[in-house]
Structure formats: C-alpha cells, structure tokens
C-alpha cells in the first residue's frame, strides 16, 4: 500500500472532502478506514480528527477567514487548513510542531503542492498570534451549528440554556449498556465486565450501566454471549415509559436497528408478542440477529410502512412509535447533523403525525402508546403530539414527571436535554387511549 494511504491525516482530509458532497461522515469514514490499512492507534487518531473537524467546521471557517482573505481554496486545501487549525486548538496530545509539519505535508500528497506555502504560512501565523479562540458572540459560530438551530433553541429554552446545551454537545458522550435480564443480572454483569477489563457503574435506572474505557465492545465474550446490548440512557427511559409487561402484545413501529425492541422484550420477560416493524427490509436481519444473540424468542421482525394500515396485526396493548426525525438531539455523536438545512426537515412533522395516527389506530382501548424522537425540535415533538391530541380526543397524555432525573416536563411530556440528564437529547410523550375516536 502506498505511503500516502497510511497517513491518518490524509485519510481524514479525504473523508472530510468527500462529505462536502453530501455523504454521511460515519459511513464515509468507515469505508475509508477499511481501505486504509491504518493500525488501530492511527485509525483512532483519524476518527478523532474527522469528527472533531466536522463538529467545529463553522467556527474553524470563521477563524480561517481572517488568515485566508482573498484566497481561493480548493475543498481539499480548505479541509487541510481546518484540520491543521483543529489540531492546534483542540488536540493537546499533538505537539504544535508535529501538527504543523504533518499538515504541511498534505498538499503534496493531495497533488496540490502549490498550496504548501499557504498552509504553512496560515498555521505558523496562527501560532504567532497565540492560538486565539473565537471571540464573537454568535452562538451558531461559537458552537458550530446552523443559525436556525441556535435561534430555535434560544426561543424554546432561552439563551443561557442553549449555550449550556451547545457546550455539552462539544464534549464526549458516555456509553451506556442495557443488562439483558433474560440472561443475567446487573451485579453479575458488572463483575463479568470487570474480569474483561471494563469498569461498569449502575445508574439511577435499573439495569442500565455506564461504561468507562469502552474499547471495541462487540469483541467482548460477554457481548457475544448476549449479556447486554449498547443503548443510550435516553432510549432506555423511553422503553421504561412504555411499561410493557409479560403477556402483552406490543408493536414497535420504526424498530431498526432494534435496540428499543430488545429492551422492551426484556421488560416482557420473553412472554407475549412483540412485532418489530421497519420500512427498510434490508435492516430486518440486524434486528433478527440481535434478538438471537440476546436470546429473545417472542420478537418477530417484518417490513412495513408505518404510514399505512397494519393489516393482519392484532390490536396492541402497548405501541412504541419512535419516529424518523431530524436527529438534533445527537449532535455530539453525529456532528454532520449540525449543518442540517431547515428545508431538509420541513416535511418531517407531517410524516411523524401520519405515523403516530396510524399507530394509534392499532392500539386497543385502554392501551398505551409512546411517541419519541431523538431531536430537540419543538415542531417535531410537542407540535406533533399537540396536533394529535386535538384530532384524537380519546387520547390523553400521561404525566411523565419523575421519569428521568433532570428531564424537563411540559404538559406531561418529557424533554431530555443532555446537559441536564447526561443522555442524548430526546423527547418522550406517553399517550393513553380511552374510548374509540372517529377520524
């Protein structure tokens, strides 16, 4: 393999450039790393640089503008400069000299050697200036999100809460796992993980563990034996809110990749009927494989468009409606979502409402439906549920006060803000059906 292909910074710049054409960072990075031949340590370095530059791109560009005024930059050189600046700003483990020297090598490897002098000059000038940080007051630049996102959150939560929320998205997010209660207990799993070199800590939510120093979890024998699955704290609270019991009939309307279905199945004790639906047939094997690994025997995965009737499916006691959303609650894990354009998500509330109403048709009187998203967009959350409740007067919102420590509860619905809950950003509404309604 050519030497250039072994360079983690080169791979990082190539991935960043490829994603400017609309590719997803995680998919582009995974594909590039598989082809790169990089050893584990350099793969980790490349991953940190790609995600870090993506998360800081708007701020980096604002700072680079002062050093590159009037210069026309190609996308690879622009990403090279972003990478250099990010290393100097945010990667304490990389000496300044190494950050500059290794970055200055990249234009030649990118076959744009004429830009070497520019890259060198910009980075050394930034060092001479004392590595200044962004000093402006624009939250969308300081925390590198699209302006409409910052404005939406300021309106919904206030400027100070928005500042804290955005600052939280700049930090690392912890890894939570769900104890598979069909096969083990939390104390036993904590001991087992300790034997495998990991530290697991209990949380306020039973059978939810916080991991320290995770590494590659699928490589653990305990993972292969189906003793746990990885699931954020927010999703586990969502499943707790559903309240599934042994013997229930439960529908998961948008189930892939299956994590919530697995947790619900554990609440059911493997008894009853759990139907896990998803619109994408190619995602069903992942749900089925996960269920087999965890020893879940009462789950059936099937392809279904959640906006259409559930033909041949019995009325359910409980329904989980975790709908497609803008994902603005997981910016810390998927930094490319910071740059979502408002037009990309304008049709989501209509889709979400259609899915919710269709699911409601399948719920028996007295049953419970949980509507959830991993976004912090009021239009997709309270807005959708509010419209649903106005159109369907036989449904009422169940108060979720006390569900999750730190959650904000409005009109009975819970919003999990990461800086308050330690979880992903998430929204949960629990709806109970009374007498049948006419639509």
UniProtKB/TrEMBL annotation:
Entry's family note: Belongs to the class I-like SAM-binding methyltransferase superfamily. RsmB/NOP family.
One GO cellular component term noted in the UniProt record for this chain: cytoplasm
Catalytic function, reaction form: cytidine(967) in 16S rRNA + S-adenosyl-L-methionine = 5-methylcytidine(967) in 16S rRNA + S-adenosyl-L-homocysteine + H(+)
Key words of the record: Cytoplasm, Methyltransferase, RNA-binding, rRNA processing, S-adenosyl-L-methionine, Transferase
Places the protein is found: Cytoplasm
Function, as annotated: Specifically methylates the cytosine at position 967 (m5C967) of 16S rRNA.
Taxonomy of the source species: Bacteria, Bacillati, Bacillota, Clostridia, Eubacteriales
Native species: Neobittarella massiliensis
Top-rank taxon: Bacteria
EC number: 2.1.1.176
Active site: 374 (nucleophile)
Protein name: 16S rRNA (cytosine(967)-C(5))-methyltransferase
GO molecular function terms attached to this record: RNA binding; rRNA methyltransferase activity
Annotated PANTHER family: NOP2 YEAST -RELATED NOL1/NOP2/FMU SUN DOMAIN-CONTAINING (PTHR22807), RIBOSOMAL RNA SMALL SUBUNIT METHYLTRANSFERASE B-RELATED (PTHR22807:SF53)
NCBIfam families the UniProt entry points to: PRK14902.1, rsmB
Main localization (coarse): cytoplasm
Domain SAM-dependent MTase RsmB/NOP-type: 165-434
Binding site for S-adenosyl-L-methionine: 254-260, 278, 305, 322
Chain segments annotated as coiled-coil in the UniProt record: none
One GO biological process term: regulation of DNA-templated transcription
